[in-house]
# Entry
Amino acid sequence: MTLLWLFAGGAVGAAVTAVMMQRVRRKVRTETDAAEHSASQVFAELSTRTDRLQAALDAMPYGVVVVDRDGRVLVRNQASDDAGADAHNEVLVQAAVQYNLRSAQRGEARSQTVELYGPPRRVIVVHARPLSSDGAMATIEDVTERSRLDAVRTDFVANISHELKTPIGALAVLAETLIDETDPAVISRLADKTVNEAHRVAKIIDDLLELSRIELSGDLIVSECDVASLVLEASSRNSYAARQNQVGVNAGDIAVGLKINADHAQIASALGNLVDNAVKYSEMGGKVTVTAYADQQGVTFVVADTGIGIPLRDLDRIFERFYRVDRARSRGTGGTGLGLSIVRHVASNHGGAVTVESREGEGSTFRLYIPDRLVPQT
Amino acid sequence: MDELRKSFHHDIEDVRTELVHLAAFVTESIPRATAVLLNGDLEGADEIIGGDDEIDARSLDLEDRCVQILALQAPVAGDLRQIVAALKMVAEVERSADLVCNICKAARRIYGHALDPTLRGIITRMGEQAQQLYIAAIESFVENDAAKAAAIDDMDNYLDALQKQFVQAIFESHAAGRIDLQVAVQLAVVARFYERIGDHAVNIGERVRFVVTGWLPEHRGAARFRSRTDDTGEIVRQVVEGSGS
# Structure
């Protein structure tokens, strides 16, 4: 009996143990599953976060490189890889990054400006600073546009005062000389010069007014313009100056019936300025061609000359107000330094652009692109 | 042994990286020198001429490293070609940097003299073309691209043509009294500097072809010469029987 009880007790005990073991196993399994689940969740979350951080770094406009104490790269974003357009520029930028990072690894922040002559010319600033958690980071920033704007700002004041003060100074001197002059021949010569200088100031003021009108007027008077007649008008309006310099101005073949919705007066003014420049900077016997062609987006007017061309260093600055390639020559050509600025504003008012290709001694080609998306006013 | 090999290949990679860096430096200084020349930028000229010391020092260091690798690692086959080619290429790059300095020195000598737009235009073109040759040389070296390296020679023909065109333009400008004789001579020398820079880029390209294929264009001439010599190295003279007078 006792044996039976013992047996029964043992069996019950074993059953209880089995049930308990099963419970424990189930619990352990559940907990392991939960742990695995939460670990994979944490892992997924971490990798999402890392991806997000990397994506955010990649979206940044400047390059970032993070290195550990031994100089091994831990993080770098996309912009840090395409800091230089050409292979050799890239090498120079990366060398500057390495050089500055080495100094930052030693605990000393450092920055360096790398000027790349390109073309296109670019200015890159590399900053490197030590990190609190060992290692260092470098940022690579393209400041080309910023340094160009700086130059524009400083030069603008110098240029406008030069352009305005020169004729006014000349007027004052001429008037002073006239006061004491008695010889009629000299008086007549001085008076002629005075008139010329006065015209010069008037022309500058006219151009300034036109520029500010074009700059300020957001409202274009849009009408359907005939492209061929715009080109013809531009090529014939400068015929006197062209004859004087023996420069031939030709209008190219334009597709019959080509129309563009634009502000007629502004386009005419822009084209006139371009042709005016082309004639002015052509040598005796040069050739100027004005033409236009259409593509799906709009119309491009082309003014090409075989003149003296524009030096490379001035090419991206000629559309600035009062910017002069050669100040010594500017008085001889009689321009105001505002023509191309007007052209640029006309282009931007129409949502288009003006570009230039030029080679010294071979000539320049200006392209004024006007998109066909304006609606004529009725 | 593996570690040794690893460090050896690391050394070769270092030599290549430094060589690319030096060549990139020269590539960048070509448009700088052109700007110095065209804008009469004396300060810029001083900067480039002063910077040449660094190129000289780094070229010497690089040469030393190549010699060290040759002496200590005794490389063979492709590795040997890499190091021998690098030794030759350092000299080309270093000489090109000197030529860039020479352009700047010429800019100092013609300071204050105005140049015709035609002359300025061709100078710009020569500078651009010399730089393009150098860019192609670097790319072919980095990518071990023998085909691109071979193309540099053709690109150089255009630079040579520009040099001829430039000399013609100098004559015309001088004849018209727009530049004096001293400036004309300096400009002719400048054209020669650009042309030489192009030649050095071509030489670099040839070395790249040598690394990849083991062949140099000079082998063609050498083979011609050998075909004219006998076993002792004497040139075999063709005896032409004359009919006598």
Summary: The mean pLDDT of chain A is 84. The first helix of chain A runs from residue 2 to 59. Chain A touches chain B through 21 residues (CB under 8 Å). Residues 214 and 345 of chain A are 7 Å apart (CA to CA).
